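Lab meeting, item 3. Inverse folding demo.
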């Protein structure tokens, strides 16, 4: 059984590398059984995922620029005022975590002049970003 798990782990590792699914940074055998594989996405992958998540009919931030910082992601861009009087610069701070193998996002701060977001809109943004980042991490949904 252990040999089969090790073989399966190695096959997954080779598959990740062959499919260009990010850089595998660590492989650890879990004492409770199984194997934990750690992979990382590039800043470009994260930037593309967030830009895609924000590309809706009325985007919160246009032309987003992602800055990966320790423990958080700061997204800056421009926001078109709803009254049509122009655009303002703004930022949004996001944290990513993993729970039970699923990527979770949390918008922790939004700093855009004249904008107050409802919990429903924040939840929608969180869900779209998590979905896009997960899709980038596993491009073919395997």
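The presenter then showed the designed sequence:
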């Amino acid at each position: 059984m252990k040999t089969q798990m090790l073989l399966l782990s190695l096959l997954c590792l080779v598959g990740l590398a062959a499919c260009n699914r990010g850089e595998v940074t660590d492989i650890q055998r879990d004492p409770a059984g199984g194997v934990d594989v750690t992979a990382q996405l590039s800043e470009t992958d994260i930037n593309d995922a967030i830009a895609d998540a924000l590309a809706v009919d009325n985007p919160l931030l246009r032309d987003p620029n992602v800055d990966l910082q320790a423990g958080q992601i700061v997204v800056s861009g421009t926001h078109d005022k709803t009254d049509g009087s122009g655009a303002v610069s703004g930022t949004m701070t996001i944290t990513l975590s993993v729970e039970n193998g699923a990527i979770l996002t949390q918008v922790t701060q939004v700093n855009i002049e004249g904008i107050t977001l409802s919990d429903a809109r924040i939840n929608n943004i969180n869900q779209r970003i998590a979905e896009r980042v997960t899709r980038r991490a596993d491009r073919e949904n395997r």
